[in-house]
Amino acid sequence: MPGYELYGTEERDAVIAWFNASHGVMMAHGFDRLRQGIFKVREFERAVADTMGCAYAQAVSSGTAALFVALRALGVGPGDEVITQAFTFVATVEAILATGATPVITEVDRSLTMDPTDFERRITPRTKVVIPVHMAGAAADLETILAIAARHRVTVVEDACQAVGGAYRGKPLGSFGTMGVLSFDFAKTITTGEGGMVVTNDRTLFERARAIHDHGHEYHPERPRGQDTRSLPGFNFRLTEIQGVLGLTQLAKLPLILSRQRANKVLLKTGIADCGFEFRHLHDPEGDLADTCIFFLEERQRAAAFAAALERRGFTTKNLPGALSWHYAGTWDHLFRGISSLDHPEKRWPKTDDLLHRAIALPVNVAMSEGDLADLIAAVRDSAKDARCEEAVSVLEERR
Ligand SMILES: Cc1ncc(COP(=O)(O)O)c(C=O)c1O
């Protein structure tokens, strides 16, 4: 997730040019006389919509806000159920809870995305929305999930926060559902520091999302902002103009980011191909964002030993296991208190639990040199040997 790796003169020059031309008007709306017709957030929205092949895009202040705004635009609220998956960032479930709806959580499969069979099994008459999450840059099984959702009349909102730039069968991730949600936080493919986007082809949903993100404003072109109308309760999830400038500059770098990451991931996978790891299944290898290389070890003890050995060599993992607890619903008892279907401590998602505790996620960066890659490959190969030795020693000790 390397947008920050490429922050440099282009971003700085673009901000200075914008500041000089627009008198530094930060707000995305209003200030018509002062801003000289410059609307950077609106330009960024148009550019993202075009990149995604979607008719509409609404910029918001974070990916979390984008999830909340999308769900509210769809009318999700108390009494509704929203299905998502057990491996996601905590924000997906926080957004569902913030609407007053009940989260329903599925297992993931060997792609570490929503298990479609478990999704179908968990649909009830109260199910309103399903949120498949394209985790770590790779597509969920969209063909199957979209078919099940259509059969049961469940609306699809894609959480593509970790997959900006990824694709499925040649189409951008986030553009398949009724709504798609993107993040531009500090660690994402392209970054505005904090920021997010809701994309859709549905004009009514776009207008609802626009109103919800900005105190209910209906954006009447013939009315000054102070006399605008409202009919929905909203909030403030606005993006600033300076973030619009940064977003446009970063978006222009997306093709470079994708080609470098993809090339680096091929080299990394080739370098560790004979280590005996089972690589994560990819529903569309060509569309992989390629910012993460995930594989499974046979036993969770061996995965823990491997991660420790890698760390001793000065290399960290990404969310698996580095930040597992922020990405696994099995650890979120603080969110599930009082929700009868989720409020019990025993293993709720045994398949996901097993896969996640055996998984290693390596970061693949844009700015990796050949030397960096060679060092990482050597560290992975040596750590795999260490992990096997440590396991053998512990087995012998157990037998004694
Ligand atoms: C899958 C997923 N959904 C939602 C979010 C929330 O995005 P943000 O950090 O922009 O609020 C994240 C952020 O890491 C994420 O990984």
- The unreliable regions are none
Strand order of the largest sheet: 1-9-8-5-4-2-3
Q: Under CATH, the topology of the largest domain is which?
A: Aspartate Aminotransferase, domain 2
The fraction of residues in strands falls at 5-15%
For the secondary structure, the number of strands is 12
Largest sheet: 7 strands, mixed
Q: Mind telling me the C-alpha Rg? A: 22 Å
CATH architecture of the largest domain: 3-Layer(aba) Sandwich
| Percent range of helical residues | 40-55%
Give the class from helix and strand content and strand pairing: alpha/beta
Average of the residue pLDDT scores: 94
**Number of separate helices:** 14
Which geometry do the CA atoms define? Answer: globular
Count up the domains.
Answer: 2
Structure explained in plain terms:
This protein is of the alpha/beta class. The protein folds into two domains: about 5-250, Aspartate Aminotransferase, domain 2 (3-Layer(aba) Sandwich); about 255-400, Aspartate Aminotransferase, domain 1 (Alpha-Beta Complex). Helix content is about 40%, strand content about 10%. It has helices at about 10-20, 40-50, 65-75, 90-100, 115-120, 140-150, 205-215, 240-250, 255-270, 300-310, 320, 335, 350-355, 370-400; strands spanning about 55-60, 80-85, 100-105, 125-130, 155-160, 165-170, 170, 180-185, 195-200, 280, 290-295, 360-365. The strands form three sheets. The chain has a seven-stranded mixed sheet with strand order 1-9-8-5-4-2-3, with helices on both faces. A three-stranded antiparallel sheet has the order 10-11-12. Strands 6-7 form a two-stranded antiparallel ribbon. A hairpin with a 2-residue loop joins strand 6 and strand 7. Helix 3 packs across helix 7, helix 9 crosses helix 14 and helix 10 (about 300-310) packs across helix 14. The model has no long low-confidence stretch (mean pLDDT about 95). The structure holds pyridoxal-5'-phosphate. Pyridoxal-5'-phosphate (PLP) binds next to helix 3 and helix 4.
